[in-house]
Amino acid sequence: MNAASPEVLSALRACVGEDRVLVDAGALEHYGRDWTRVHPAAPLAVVLPGSVGEVQALVRLALERQLALVPSGGRTGLSGGAVACQGEVVVALDRINQITDFNPVDRTVRCGAGVVTAQLQAFAQERELFYPVDFASSGSSQIGGNIATNAGGIKVIRHGMTRDWVAGLKLVTGTGELLDLNRGLVKNNAGYDLRQLVVGAEGTLGIIVEATMRLARPPQDLAVLVLAVADMAAVMRVLEAYQSAMDLQAFEFFSELALQKVVAHQGLQRPFDTVAPFYALLEVERGSAADMEQAMALFEHCAEQGWVLDGVVSQSVAQAQALWRLREDISETISRWTPYKNDISTTIARVPDFLAEIEAVVNEAYPDFEIVWFGHIGDGNVHLNVLKPDALPMAEFQQRCSEVSRWVFEIVQRYEGSISAEHGVGLLKKAYLHYSRSPLEIQIMRQIKQVFDPAGIMNPGKIFDA
Question: Contact, 147 vs 211, CB < 8 A?
């Protein structure tokens, strides 16, 4: 990679300040990649703007000098969407992190793109409100990145994806113009909703600099159940039984191997002695004694049907948190094996057959590999994780895994599912986009990008090649 010229560095510093342009090796490595490790970080420089005006100045400079820009949030993504590996300038939004204009009537608040998810959650809690989009990386992910990837997480079954909580946003386009989209309105049918077009676009249409986020009433006295389930078909029957009678806050699943790894490496205890192929984690609102009576009656019904083999319900906040860790700590636990990851989805009712077909293909291709399943199965999303054996070189592991990706995605296509349920396309999945999107859809996506970013400087190479 070529080093940035003194002239370019001087121009960048004129936009954001002398100390806000980083070129040392440590900074380039830190800001130039996300949680994926497939593509090495190789940015030209890292800039940390502190205002919307500075972002606009950077974009105009990039246009003038044909510099590619990679927007960067908390870099917790798993698709390579925030990776700068081709000499791009990383635009890190960390300093645009103010929370302002709280509106208790509309239950909205304005956030800079660099606001950390947990920061917004804490802000809401202090005002006896609730920001429900939650996931394992909430302590480091940023709102701008959440919107760019339409982050989901563990509460989707009850509260939806990030896009459901974006009341408005500001975007600096690829021409340096500022769009103020929707402005916090609840009802707005005045033409196309460009706000929703930007959500999930992975920074390819521009740089999100600010968002007006909705907040909600907090759930009351949550209880967590972990159930040992006989098989995947039984997981779906348990989901159907509970959903028909209660409003679930969350419904997650994980495999026995996932549980073994978490217990062994996180110092946690098994929830009970019974060993089962899969486990379901349910979160319900315990607003009254009748709610828990209903939850326990459903548990007994599921046990009588043979779907549930054992179970436990939290009796305190601390126990609820410990049970959640059995699911939430899986990604961190298995990261030491540098897993091959796929987050895929289909309609909820088709998940058991969908998972069975994929598992058969993967087991045949990787008979000597450990396979960990978990996911937000209440919304049709499952996570496939193939763990790298310690003795196997990374290059060989990636090659072997990539060979079977096509077979997995052919199944996804047959089930009319998605190759990326929540992590985005980025660099890692763009070669497989056609398994989820038609040629006409991809053509229209390219045309939309051309309108927002005619020079092609916004996160180039992500989702599709120009």
Answer: yes
In order of 324, 340, 396, the CA distances from 334 in angstroms are 16, 10, 19
Q: Which amino acid is at 190?
A: A
Give the CATH number of domain 99-214; options: 3.30.465.10, 3.60.70.12, 2.60.40.10, 3.40.50.1820: 3.30.465.10
Question: What digits encode the pLDDT tens for the residues 143-199?
Answer: 999 999 999 988 999 999 999 999 999 999 999 999 999 999 999 999 999 999 999
- CA atoms of 330 and 312, how far apart (whole Å): 19
Which ranges in the chain are annotated with CATH 3.30.43.10?
6-92
Looking at CATH, the fold of the domain delimited by 338-425 is given as Alpha-Beta Plaits (3.30.70)
Listed in order, the ranges of the chain carrying CATH 3.30.465.10 are 99-214
Residue range(s) in the chain whose domain bears CATH number 3.30.70.2190: 222-331
* Strand, helix or coil for residue 272: coil
Q: What is the average per-residue pLDDT within 32-37?
A: 88
Q: What is the CA radius of gyration of the chain?
A: 23
pLDDT reported for residue 38: 81
Report the candidate in 76, 47, 97 with the shortest Cα–Cα distance to residue 426.
Answer: 76
Q: Per-residue confidence at 1, pLDDT binned at 50, 70, 90?
A: low
Answer whether 197's CB lies under 8 Å from 159's CB: no
Separation between Cα atoms, residue 160 and residue 214, nearest integer Å: 12
Distance between CA atoms of residues 291 and 266, nearest Å: 32
Alpha-carbon span 254 to 282, nearest angstrom: 12
Report the half-sphere exposure of 88 (CA within 13 A, side-chain side).
Answer: 28
CATH 3.30.70.2740-classified regions of the chain: 338-425
The closest of 221, 374, 245, 259 to 300, measured between CA atoms, is 245
Over residues 46-103, the pLDDT tens digits come to 999 999 999 999 999 999 999 999 999 999 988 999 999 999 999 999 999 999 999 9
Domain 222-331 indexed as CATH 3.90.180.10: no
Is the pTM higher than 0.85? yes
What is the CATH T-level fold of the domain 6-92, as seen in this structure?
Answer: 3.30.43
Q: What is the largest CA-CA distance in the chain?
A: 74
Quick check: 67 and 89 in contact, CB under 8 A?
A: yes
